[in-house]
Amino acid sequence: MLVEVKIGALIMDPNTNTPIVVLKGIESESILPIWVGAFEANAIALEIEKIVPQRPMTHDLIRNIITQTNLKASKVIINDLVDNTFYALIELVDLNGNTVSIDSRPSDAIAIALRIDCPIFVDQKVLDLSSSNTKQNESEYELDENLKPNEEWPDLIT
């Protein structure tokens, strides 16, 4: 089952100083944090803020290729989580209705989805796996009183 999500926040992990894209369910209470690279976070932040660079960035180039070749992105799917690494697909449809799925990093898929206004989905199994990993991490905090999750999160990355 696929769960439609939107970007709930773009924040910085205070422990690792790594950007996190927080996906929130549109019709559910699902929340999925995905740690991303600084360049990808910047690409996402630029699109969220509707800042247009002087020259096309990589994700803009990909959007242009998709549209200029008469393809349509039907959806982005965060489809797997293996060894703390998320996987995604970008589904493209041609004029004949043929679908092609392209392997992608979730951060790139999200940056492209924002640029071409296509929906983002997360496979329920990814939410389940992520949830079990979070519970595992929380139990580690309970075992060691010196380790505590940081509750303060900065606002949007700019």
Overview of the structural elements:
This protein has 158 residues and is of the alpha+beta class. 34% of the residues lie in helices and 35% in strands. It has four helices and seven strands; from the N terminus they run βββααβββαβα. It has helices at residues 38-48, 58-68, 106-116, 124-143; strands spanning 2-13, 18-25, 31-35, 72-82, 85-93, 99-104, 120-123. The chain is globular, with a radius of gyration of 17 Å. Mean pLDDT is 86; it is low at 135-158.
Query: Sheet with the most strands?
Result: 7 strands, mixed
Count of the domains: 1
Terminal CA distance: 34 Å
Q: In CATH terms, what is the fold-level topology?
A: Bifunctional nuclease domain
SS-based structural class?
Answer: alpha+beta
Mean pLDDT: 86
Query: Any idea what the CATH superfamily is called?
Result: Bifunctional nuclease domain
Strand fraction equals 25-35%
Strand order of the largest sheet: 3-2-1-7-4-5-6
